[in-house]
Amino acid sequence: MKKVSIFIFMGLLTNIFMVSSLFPQMIIRHPVEILQGLSGGTIQATVNPDFTLNSINNVFDGNNYTMAGVQNTHDLSITLAFSDTVEFSRTKIFFWSNGDWSMEIADTESDLNSGMGSYQLLVNQRMHTAFVADSVDVGFQKALYVRFKAHNPQENYIYLGEWDLIGALILTQLYIYPRPIKVIPGTTLKLKVKALDASNKVYDYPNTEALLWFTGNSSIATIGEFGELTGVALGTTNVLVRSYSNSISGQAQVEVVTDFRSVNAPTKIVKVALVVQNPVIDSVNNRRIHQVWGWSNPYALVNNIIEDLTWASEGVINFQIAETHDDANIFTEISSRAYDHAAGYLLFHTFQ
């Protein structure tokens, strides 16, 4: 695709910064992070009756096709108690079973149970079909307690794939990366964008509006319509990106240099479980399979692999063996085919 460079005067660029600062936010719909709240203890969930298939995490994992269910009952209720007021304007559901569903809110548990005071019934026995998503706009709501009810009058079970509360996410600025931004004259670097909220929490840019790119000095660097930054001459300038409506923007410094070395990311420790399938096959001499066949010692081989991966990543990835399983068995067949490859006794598994 043909690159398009936009050349502007510094005065115009200053005006763009001023205009964008008048509209410092973009508001989008965004799911309330219920699963994160459950894990962090800021949300408490009560399920009645308890799930007999899977757990409540399956209801809030963002995947319609991982479900939690109850059996030998026609009814299910999930009550969420929030430590801080939750705000939302839409709710979405996805069932694996037929029936109807309701949703109610309140500011206290007693109001929720009694239907008095701050109680509101937002959805009342709305019919749903298995494997068909449904959503309801409920207007802007604020509550500390939210209760979801499901009823299946025909069958003695309820299978729930997903339940979402959709709130308003306020994005306040754009973040340009990778950083630091350095290019050599005549070379091009593709810049990307993330969105930040007021707490600098990072989100994917929602792509609800096109992005416009600019540089402060086109004699030092130019930028294409999709963020392709090209170095022109040695020096320093700024790059600006904004949404088409000026609702949100971001900027970063650009250096055009003769040469540079990329800064490594922080070291990441990856814990793994090591499964060694190296059984004793010579019981008389107590020799393992690698000794009988003259293969490398699996533990020495694994250490070499870890060293190679650390070297290849320049120390960014650091594998640590958290568990070791010395398996007395060895696979003899995979997919109905004989398995006789020498490497078969070594397996890496990510350790959670």
Structure description:
The protein is mostly beta strands. It has 3 domains: 10-25 and 173-256, Immunoglobulin-like, CATH 2.60.40.1080; 29-170, Jelly Rolls, CATH 2.60.120.260; 268-350, no CATH class. The protein is built from 5 helices and 25 strands. The strands form 7 sheets. Strands 1, 2, 3, 4, 5, 6, 7 and 8 form an 8-stranded antiparallel β-sheet that branches. The longest helix is centred in the C-terminal third of the chain and has 15 residues, at 298-312. It starts with 9 loop residues before the first helix and ends with a strand.
Report how far the terminal alpha carbons are from each other.
Answer: 43 Å
Considering the protein shown, what is the CATH homologous superfamily of the largest domain? Galactose-binding domain-like
- Principal-axes geometry comes out as flat
Q: From the coordinates shown, what is the CATH architecture of the largest domain?
A: Sandwich
What's the order of the H and E elements? HEHEEEEHEEEEEEEEEEEEEEEEHHEEEE
CATH topology type of the largest domain = Jelly Rolls
What is the helix content? 10-25%
Beta-strand residue fraction? over 45%
